[in-house]
Amino acid sequence: MKKKLTFILLLTSLLFLFISCNKASIDSENQKVTIEKPIINNESSSTKGNNNVEKSSKAEKKPTTPTPEIKNRDVRLYYYDVNLDKLVYLDTVIEIKDKAVATAIVNALKSPSNNKITPAISSKINIKSASVDLDNDLIRIDFTDNFVKEQNLGSGPEAMTLQAIVNTLGYNFNVNKVKITLGGKPYNSGHFSYNENEYIPVNYNDCVEFK
């Protein structure tokens, strides 16, 4: 009987010891989980912070659009007046953007400031290039190759309109000769043609101020 009682007490002690060990192990595991959670959150926050820095850096590197340089300039523009059958000129002020003087002048010939004046150049025609050669008293200007088609002029109006363009460019660039090409080729409309070395001289005779 005494042996049996001793065995029961021993068994009870072992069972109690086993339960205590398991509880300690569980508590230890819970403690680990509790400690590790904040570390995971910190890493997540750190990653978000880095992304924000990268986004901010990218935003700072975004290029800015340069502000165009705009200046006003006094010019004299020549047009062919059909009613008078002569060239008229108009002194005005135009806006020059980024030093593109020839482009601004041609645009003014397309859109006269007075609606009673016929445009000297069609709005569908553009400049491909322009260069001034002061040593040779010359300006070279190359229009798009749709020039003849878009102007659509008879021989008389074509001659007068060409002279208006030549006088305008010559006067404002202070040269006496203008070489016009179309799409890089010498001017040829069927009514008038010029070889590679030909130019058109300015001619201010019989031009009157538009009033």
Overall description:
The protein is of the alpha/beta class. It has a domain at 70-206. It has four helices and eight strands; from the N terminus they run αββαββααββββ. Strands 3, 4, 5, 6 and 7 form a five-stranded mixed beta sheet that branches. Strands 1-2-8 form a three-stranded mixed beta sheet. The chain is elongated. The N and C termini lie far apart (142 Å). Residues 24-49 have low confidence and may be disordered. This is GerMN domain-containing protein.
Features:
five-stranded mixed β-sheet; 211 residues; signal; GerMN domain-containing protein; GerMN; alpha/beta; elongated; single chain
Task: Lay out the secondary structure.
Elements: H1 2-60, E1 70-81, E2 86-97, H2 101-110, E3 127-133, E4 138-143, H3 147-151, H4 155-173, E5 177-182, E6 185-186, E7 200-201, E8 208-209
Parallel strand pairs: 2-8, 4-5
Antiparallel strand pairs: 1-2, 3-4, 5-6, 5-7
Poorly predicted segments? 24-49
- What is the distance, rounded to the nearest whole angstrom, between the alpha carbons of the first and last residues? 142 Å
Multimerization state? single chain
Major β-sheet, in short? 5 strands, mixed
- Helical residue percent band: 40-55%
Helix/sheet category: alpha/beta
| Series of secondary-structure elements, N-terminal to C-terminal | HEEHEEHHEEEE
Secondary structure tally: strands: 8
Q: What value does the Rg take, in angstroms?
A: 44 Å
Query: What is the overall shape?
Result: elongated
Count of alpha/pi helices: 4
Kindly report the average pLDDT value: 82
Beta percentage is 15-25%
